[in-house]
Please model this.
Amino acid sequence: MNTNRNGYRPDHVSVSQLNLYLMCPLKYRFVHIEKLPRPFKSAELALGTAFHAAIQWWHKHRRNGSAPEAGDAARILAADLHAQAVEAISFVSGQTLENLSDLGRKLIEVY
Model:
């Protein structure tokens, strides 16, 4: 398997990598070849990551026979968001971590 100095494997390309390359080849290079760190995390990415973690937790507990409630998953989401806030999160005007947590709670309830 051929890899460059950054561990980049050109023989393995995911669908998301292809989409990124088609949208912006330079960003693809920065992210997947040069592996440059991101200067900040968008609020949307933070929410998506926290939502995924909460839903994954919920499904794991259901698979093990328990019946977690939406409020429990919402607390997992809020805790994950606060943990991510250790890094810089870029909010749009008027948006806060609490607003994001409320939106996440609503998404969990709908799910």
Notes: The chain has five helices and two strands.
